[in-house]
Please model this.
Amino acid sequence: MKNVFVLAVLFAVATASAEDMVPLKTKLPPPLFVGTPVPINVPNLEPPQHGKRPDFMVPKGTVNLALNKKVTSSDSEPIVGTLDLITDGDKDGDEGSWVELGPGKQWVQIDLGKEADIYAVIVWHYHSQARVYRDVVVQISDDPKFEKGVTTIFNNDYANELGLGAGKDLAYIETYQGKLMDAKGAKGRYVRLYSKGNTTNKLNHYIEVEVWGKPAS
Amino acid sequence: MHTDESVNAYITGELLAGKSFHYDPQDRHGPALFVLAEPVARLLGANNFSGLTESQLRLSPVLAGTATVLLFGAGVEMFGFIPCLVAALLFAFAPLPLYYSRYFIHETLFVAVTLGLILSGWQALRKSSLPSAALAGFCAALMLACKETAALHFFAVAVALFVCRFAASRHFGMPGPVPARTFGILTCAWTAPGAPGWKIILAATTAFLFTFILLFTWFGRDWQALPDLVRAIPNFAARAGGEGHQKPFWYYLKLLAGGGSGGIIFALAVLGFFRARGSASRLFLAIYALLIITIYSAIPYKTPWLALNFWLPLALLAGLAIEWIWFATTKLPVRAAVLVSLAAVGSLIAQDTRQRVFLHPADENNPYAYAHTVEDLLRLPPRLAQLARQENLAQPRIAVVAADPWPLPWYLRKYSQVGFWQPGQNPGAADFFITSPEAAEKLGDKLKNFRPEYFGVRPEVLIILWSPWDRSR
Model:
């Protein structure tokens, strides 16, 4: 009888949890290039995305906390565009939608205004041609200087060129769907994204960054 | 190195290694560039492909570009001092000719010998000079041995001369043609007293045929090249349709008029076009410019280096415009203003040259860097060397699997164990694989224990370096 009760409780909790999880719904921009065909069934390579990305489940009530939030950067005077383009909701890949930062290691940082539970970060660097951005690292912290309490949710800097530790995530080709990174509910007010050039040039680009989460309770 | 440069480098390397040139009717040009490049590279110490450097190869177009600048000195009699001075300065300092004068492709040499043909041909016809006629034939053969598009230029020159024939006798008071002594298309020109017309034509034709056969057969070693050249005609006709390089009619005009200085130079050339009168040679220049620009613009296949063919007449026409402005202004203050304006144009040219030639030569936003190899690929050789050291491999086995591997042969030339395969072929075992994303799919489990690393080749084109992956690291 006791076992049945425990099972019933677990079932109820699981059902309640499942009901609280909903697919993350973001609006995708139109694709601008057919793209270098991403290999299929190749071990160790970022799996391809044919058609729509599989649903990524987030707690009900999760929203894009980054929309229209303040953005700062290691390059305060971008070569092209302005930093506010990164959180303006425009994900089109055309000129005028992206900001171009200087060559080499650069970062952008979004201030969410207050601490939040973060479930996913989606980044669109540049999607009008097939490119791979180098040494992509995404971190979350409550410290605006990212000196303490830092959670790294994505790192494909395998050679530790940025000095943030060697990462094991895989490089990926940019597409109009952006790159979704699982933040696993990490807490923090600031989200910082690093990169170090790309396969076409040494510059760094951002079209949009979305931070999906809920204000910390 | 651009893909085309790397292909030319490979051919030069083969010649340095003692092999002979074989004309490929499918996708190659003639041997003229290599006649220059091989001895230059050898003189600089190279004796095979792996020993070549960019500087050794690119010195050849530098020499051809320098020759063009100097040749304008021989054009003073034909076009006048100021037009030739301006054209020489534009060839020496403007971004377009400077950019391609260090590009190891055929274009710079082609333009140099085109100018050689125009100058020597004019001398031959005006002075009935047999040496000039032979030189013209020699230059025409070199043009054809550079690029098969020489036929377009021969047509434009012939039509321009034909028009000049009538204009010369009617407006310039020059002796008209002597049909009884000349024949063929060259009757369009006029001859001064001197060698009979048939001797002029014979000298030019003999020099042309001798040089043409000598070069295309690679000094008598490959006679198959002659029928191959005929077989190449349908290939080039098909290529003219675009083959992925098709662009709108106005592409070249936009390219030439671009940048801070392009519009001004182009406007001067247009002014020069309308002032190109007073002598048959200037009329010839204007007609030749109009024809060659129209012909190239009408062909769907377009690449930016082909615009160098227009730069030759346009630079001279811009010189004609400046000459006209100079002589139209006699008052000192006005001339001072003209000089100041020219200095300002010079400053704009310098800025464009600095940006396009020196600061951003491989940037995809540079209109001259057409499908150019991106800087990212320069990271591949040192990365391979680093990985080989890590794996204690003195001579790693590298398997390249890609439908179009160029320019990788250039960047991997230092490695002795490099093989190239097409997607779907089995490359066997290797220490490193380099694949296109498409080819990787077909290698399947062979890549199971390899770590992928992307490198850019050209805008839109990526390759993957696969290195042994120790997951415990």
User: Anything to note?
Assistant: Chain A has one helix and eleven strands. The helical segments of chain A are 2-20.
